[in-house]
Amino acid sequence: MIGYGCNASPWYDHDPRCPGRQGFHHGIDVAMPCGTPLYSAVRGEVLDPSAPGAPGSAYGVHPFRIHAGSVDVLIGHTRQVFVRPGDRVHPGQRIALSSDSGAPDGCHLHFEVRRHGGGLGEAVDPARLLQLS
């Protein structure tokens, strides 16, 4: 749907790293039907939503982060979350259902990787963690 980096999507403000009027997308969006089960790709601990680096409303009403080693994995646009802060998760564990909450372009999963405790400016391309590269 929308990959990491510069893109022409109308949802993002211009970013000086990008050509023309393009914006910068800090994660990977994967289109899917609303209600699709989401499973953890990592082993880690679900963080308190008020911890440093918490996502904003653009990620929907139920975004959450999983601390996985030196990075935080941020999951956005969920309808129902099956994990709570402090829970330990493992790869393959059902963690949420997808939705279009906070997403002007329909149901999808937003998957983002940041340095642990880092904000939006410290997001990195998640392709390596997802073994896409």
Second rung of CATH, namely the architecture: Distorted Sandwich
Head-to-tail CA distance between termini: 17 Å
Query: How many β strands by DSSP?
Result: 12
Number of helices: 0
Order of helices and strands: EEEEEEEEEEEE
| Helix-and-strand structural type | mainly beta
What portion of residues is helical? under 10%
CATH topology: Glucose Permease (Domain IIA)
Strand content: 35-45%
- CA gyration radius, whole angstroms: 14 Å
Largest sheet: 7 strands, antiparallel
Number of domains: 1
Shape: globular
Average pLDDT: 90
Task: Explain the overall architecture.
- The chain is mainly beta.
- It has one domain: Glucose Permease (Domain IIA) (Distorted Sandwich), CATH 2.70.70.10.
- It contains no helices and 12 strands.
- It is globular and about 45 Å long.
Quick tags:
single chain, 133 residues, mainly beta, Glucose Permease (Domain IIA), seven-stranded antiparallel beta sheet, three-stranded antiparallel beta sheet, 12 strands, 0% helix, 36% strand
Lay out the secondary structure.
Elements: E1 5-7, E2 23-25, E3 28-31, E4 37-39, E5 44-46, E6 64-68, E7 71-76, E8 78-81, E9 88-89, E10 94-98, E11 108-115, E12 123-124
Antiparallel strand pairs: 1-2, 3-11, 4-10, 5-6, 5-9, 6-7, 7-11, 8-10, 11-12
